[in-house]
Amino acid sequence: MARRLLWASLALAPITLLVDVLVHPGKTALFVLAAISLIPLAWLIGEATEHAGEHTGPRIGGLLNASFGNAPEVIIAVIAVGDNLPDVVRGSMAGSIVSNILLVLGAALILGKDDAELDRSSLLGQLGLVLVAVLLLLVPSVPGWHGDPNRHFLALLSIGPAVVLLGLYLAVTIIDLRRRPTHNVTDTTGWSLRTSLAVLGATTAATAAISEILVNSLQAFAEAANLSEFFIAIVIVAIVGNAAEHGGAVVIARRGKMKLATEIAISSSAQVGLLVIPVVTLASFAFAHPLALAFRPIELAAMGAAALFVGVVIRDGRARRWEGALLIAVYGGFVVWFLSAGDR
Questions:
Q1: What is the arithmetic mean of pLDDT over 35-42?
Q2: Closest by alpha carbon to 198, among 78, 38, 51, 37?
Q3: Given this model, what pLDDT does residue 197 score?
Q4: Cβ(273)–Cβ(130) under 8 Å?
Q5: How crowded is residue 171: how many other Cβ atoms within 10 Å of its Cβ?
Q6: Band of pLDDT at residue 99, cut at 50, 70 and 90
């Protein structure tokens, strides 16, 4: 039933584009339509990369999943950079990390098998990478706490941490892929490779178009809803951009595959910190206003505290439902904190 609803909801993307061109509704309605439309598109990107991986083998499939699984986040961020909305970019990326390791992991623990065994060393290693990312982000962030956080000097200062983070991601990915068992690609009953790549290309293009509508209508939605742009970016945009990981982890947890579900939730946060943030930062230099990684103290504190708290929760290597409820409650506390913080 859920899959049928997702397939049916793909019609929202062309509907949103047509509404934008023909009807010219208010920005608030457009933002809501675009946000909802991005959820099935993110799911379809995940489906296409999974089917492509069946033909290319686990190593190339893993790279495809890592690259295109984060496509909605990257596209939204790059479009926001082009529209000179740096606070939205930083907020959405920080929110992605926090929501994955608190909200998604919490939901997976609640809906999955109670007292299941987890891959403790792998999960703690991924959380460690998140903390490394937070520490490196202090380099351009601290000077940004005084004066203009978007001055060009801070953008230049961000290049170093971005390069280090991307290098660390590539090193960890190569090591991980070498550890995976190699085997011949077997016959599959899913999509052909050509179909998978065609769907991937078309869906990525649709995601770019819908993301542009989302970003362009964000400020008007914030005013209409009486919410700060920071709150919308760090909560709403972050959850929408991570829809594929959110849904995938929960569905897999329901099937009892707790090791995989928790790995998706936590590794997705590490990928945002080590892949999405540096890629968006380096790509931003193609625009008039390059991105400075000058995160607010609340953003850095939320990312670091979330990683440390989850590390304490999973340190025994067991999945418990009450711990999942605790993680979601903590995320709720963060949401209230973000709501009270206001814009920069």
A1: 85
A2: 51
A3: 84
A4: yes
A5: 11
A6: very high
- CB–CB of 192/52 below 8 Å? no
| pLDDT in the model for residue 173 | 82
Buried b (16+ CB within 10 A) or exposed e, 204-240: bebbbbbbbbbbbbbbebbeeeebbbbbbbbbbbbbb
Mean pLDDT of 208-230: 89
Please tell me the predicted confidence (pLDDT) of residue 300.
97
Whether the per-residue pLDDT at 185 is higher than 60: the answer is: no
Whole-angstrom Cα Rg for the chain: 19
C-beta of residue 238 within 8 angstroms of C-beta of residue 92: yes
Domain carrying residue 129: 2-341
Contact (CB, 8 A) for 31 and 217: yes
User: How many other C-beta atoms can be found within 10 angstroms of the C-beta atom of residue 287?
Assistant: 13
Number of folded domains that form the chain? 1
Q: What is the largest CA-CA distance in the chain?
A: 59
Residue for token pair 């390791």: 101
Instruction: List pLDDT tens digits, range 260-269.
Output: 888 888 888 8
Domain containing 156 — which CATH number? 1.20.1420.30
Q: What is the structure's pLDDT at 27? A: 83
State the Cα–Cα distance between residues 105 and 266, nearest whole angstrom.
7
Measured CA to CA, the distance from residue 232 to residue 34 in angstroms comes to 14
Residue type, 12: L
Q: What is the pTM of this model?
A: 0.86
